[in-house]
Specification:
By secondary structure, the chain is of the alpha+beta class. The chain has seven helices and 25 strands. The radius of gyration is 20 Å and the shape is globular.
């Protein structure tokens, strides 16, 4: 009985550690600047929540984003409304409307990462359940790209980016064991089955570039196309995968650590037109978080309890969540800028920051709106 009480007590501490946001602001980087933007507004999403990622089409229209009911919508600025653009599954009965969408994700789809192929205008979609898909300029029902049977099926497709010169698609599969509706388990179990992958539409060949990743998440191609950055959420670090032989010689492997000990759990990564990369941090760390994440036995013990951690996390995030975003310098990976809400304008979580034309589009998998901030 005492052992059970001890595990329960520690598990509660783990819960607080994973989602408590009382930690200090990061001290990583000499030129770090915390920025607050008074000129901002929120754009509610219609019928669903969770605009996790943003992308603009080849004409500059948008942005487009995926929602919790499986729809991909487009922002029509001159009409100030979201327009339905695409879906990732033909099964739409019971998908839309006011209900708990996460219970139907495996049926309705959950589009996460988005990227346009510049030469064709096709939109590539990383859907957590349906895999890698694409849809034409007119939208509609997206089609699966990877029709061949993979050696290891996609279990939790997450983020995507495309080489604008070659059309090669880079994407992540967060776990080969857990699906998105159990993403907390990926962290608590210590799962390391995530992958960074490459799809060449010219040959239809799929290649695994990196494996054994702890919750592979956001991915982005560098401006010079010589490396990829991939977020490893469970370890709070960003890995750099070199794409050319010259750069590989700089490290003993084909990858190195670009940034580590980030002040929160990293999600999506986007290039900034001012240089460097914006990284959304789903939840800020605290000292208790660091303790919990450094004790694998504690996480596993908590996972074995008869507790719905996803539901607990959902409730906790509503009241205590505090997401933020950091801009990493391109050369060193040092934090040069921090974005976070203030007092009454704190974010439950931040999945992504897309910077375009002097504006930051801020997305969260948990909120029924997108944030728009003028720099």
């Amino acid at each position: 009985m005492m052992k059970l009480f001890f595990v329960l007590a520690i598990s509660f501490a783990l819960l607080l550690g994973l989602f408590d946001s009382s930690g200090e602001s990061p001290k990583h980087g000499e030129s770090m600047l915390t920025v607050h933007f008074p000129d901002f507004h929120l754009i509610p999403t219609t019928g669903a929540l969770g605009p996790e990622s943003f992308v603009f089409d080849i004409s500059g229209d948008g942005p487009y984003t995926g929602l919790s009911d499986g729809r991909i919508v487009k922002w029509v600025a001159n009409e100030t409304r979201w327009m339905d653009f695409a879906v990732t599954t033909p099964t739409r009965e019971g998908c839309e409307g006011p209900h708990e969408h996460h219970k139907m994700e495996h049926v309705c789809g959950r589009p996460l990462g988005l990227a346009f192929e510049k030469s064709t205008g096709d939109l590539y979609i990383a859907d957590a359940y349906m895999g890698l898909l694409k849809v034409g300029r007119e939208g509609g029902l997206a089609n699966q790209v990877l029709t061949r049977q993979l050696d290891e099926p996609l279990r939790f497709t997450n983020a995507v980016d495309i080489d604008p010169w070659t059309g090669v698609v880079y994407f992540t599969d967060s776990s080969s064991v857990f699906q998105r509706r159990n993403y907390i388990d990926v962290i608590m179990s210590g799962d390391k089955t995530g992958r960074l992958m490459k799809y060449d539409p010219n040959t239809n060949q799929v290649t695994t570039l990196l494996s054994n990743l702890a919750f592979a998440n956001g991915v982005v191609l560098s401006q010079n196309r010589d490396y990829l950055l991939v977020a490893e959420t469970a370890t709070s670090r960003i890995l750099r995968y070199w794409l050319n032989d010259t750069s590989v010689s700089k490290s003993h492997n084909n990858y190195d650590i670009f940034a580590e000990r980030l002040p929160g759990f990293p999600d999506n990564i986007k290039r900034s037109p001012r240089g460097g990369f914006w990284v959304g941090l789903n939840t800020k760390h605290s000292k208790l978080t660091e303790f919990a994440m450094s004790n694998a036995w504690l996480r596993r013990a908590a996972l074995g309890l008869p507790v719905d951690w996803m539901k607990v996390h959902s409730y906790w995030a509503k009241y205590k969540g505090n997401g933020m975003a950091v801009r990493l310098s391109e050369g060193s990976g040092v934090i040069s800028e921090v974005f976070e809400g203030t007092n009454g304008n704190k974010w439950i979580s931040i999945s992504e920051v897309e910077e375009r034309d002097g504006t930051l589009w801020v997305g969260s998998v948990n909120t029924p709106f997108a944030g728009v901030y003028k720099i």
